């Protein structure tokens, strides 16, 4: 019986680790810097050294370790190969094969947004379900889809790239992806701040947001104060996201929709604005599909990585 | 070694059957009427009798038969239970259990649109792939999603209900589902005919479509003749469907998109109009995802049913 596993969430600045027991109890969490110089050549060796150190510290026997789950900030195939991960410096890399050779342990890997969805399904906002649509509202908009307990990876590792659903024909600015009118341009922290600025500029109504640095947090904090222009901003955000989520549920018919990422710290009020526009556009059998807030925060990645191994 | 299986595609007026060998060669196809009176009580017994008859006719041994795959025109759970299937007269029904008891053979079941997608993946327009998005443009717009060779059923059996993706905020008529602005209202045979009528009414330009009964077929036939108003109709159809398909591929990242149903008989020209609006809105890794026309026509159901059994 394997008693332990490691989760390793590789980000552009740090690699977050967790040592888990087979019940999902995290025994220790730690992190190391992500050394992206020289095409990120040191990242996997650094990780292997850190894991070996923890194995020694805890006096573990490698026979007791089920493996290492890893996530990366970009597309990765089901067999753990990345074509190119810009913010790690990597070109083509066989992540799981290399890390497995470096550590002597079995490895599995996934994309960070997808793996976070798996973590939230296991022990977070989607606990108790096996069909989960997770939406991450951060600097961008990411997504992760879990179908019958398994990540939907997609043909190019781009399953769940819901931030790039086309939702608007009028915007003139380009999205980071090169297209125009992506959901990310209206529902990310950056997008909400832009909407807020536009609504302030177009109106001469008073607002507690005036004179402050615009952000998604400011918008939702001001909504809670009853600020009319903040409420107008939240309505526009809710329209774009609510209708898009309704479309996603017509495709996927999940059991639950989990919303996470920095923007979700606004709390239940955010879900109210999304649901308001979701319900009229959702297919009848999905109108009552529950929404939940993510619960694992920045730890969703390491939990999901552990779940990749524990299955 | 099981040598044979049956596929049974239950529709509102007929049940289509196929007897297949394990290579997917269809040995015989036939159909019987669907007797929907008295809450459709006779449907499964009629099917069982017809299958028993064929077993005798072909002198088959039941040990050689892997089972019966069935599809139904409505939501059905993964364990073969329908809550209610209006156009068969059924209320709650344990389809696979009942048919299995009536025939003594293992049964598996799925929703018709999903099973058709499985058939097209196996031996039709999606042959050679295991991740397929199938779109059926008929009286309505249906869909079927295959992920790693398995149907995406969804929590309420409504996976792939892509006809009800919200795509328009201005239409005043209701969709059959009760919402307004569903894809089906713009991309089904009915929807295309409505678009064609509106475009004829709004213009006083000449058109070969004038004075004829409007239909999706008339629109695409007239497109091939270079008729300007028909082309304008096809453009509007292409915009709605192309953008919606781009959104679906941002969610699913399939290997191939297969378009079937009566409207797809228009041929490659239809794909041209869809692709024109798909590409600018598709996420970068999905811009070159191939489109194909369905190949199995009305037989997609029985092929998919067989594949449910052959796995």
Short description:
2 copies of one chain form a homodimer. The first copy, chain A, has 10 helices and 12 strands.
> What is the total domain count of chain A?
2
Task: Name the largest protein-protein interface in this structure.
Answer: A-B, 44 and 45 residues
Q: What separation lies between the terminal Cα atoms of chain A?
A: 14 Å
User: How large, in whole angstroms, is the Cα Rg of chain A?
Assistant: 20 Å
Q: Write down the secondary-structure element order of chain A.
A: EEEHHEEEHEHEEEHHHHEHEH
Averaging pLDDT over every residue of chain A, what do you get?
96
Principal-axes geometry of chain A comes out as globular
Strand tally of chain A, please? 12
Give the CATH level 1 class of the largest domain in chain A.
Alpha Beta
The number of helical runs of chain A is 10
Q: Give a short account of the largest sheet of chain A.
A: 5 strands, mixed
Task: Identify the quaternary structure here.
Answer: homodimer
Q: From the coordinates shown, what is the CATH architecture of the largest domain in chain A? A: 2-Layer Sandwich
**CATH superfamily membership of the largest domain in chain A:** ATPase, nucleotide binding domain
Strand order, biggest sheet of chain A? Answer: 3-2-1-4-7
**Class derived from helix and strand content of chain A:** alpha/beta
Strand content of chain A: 15-25%
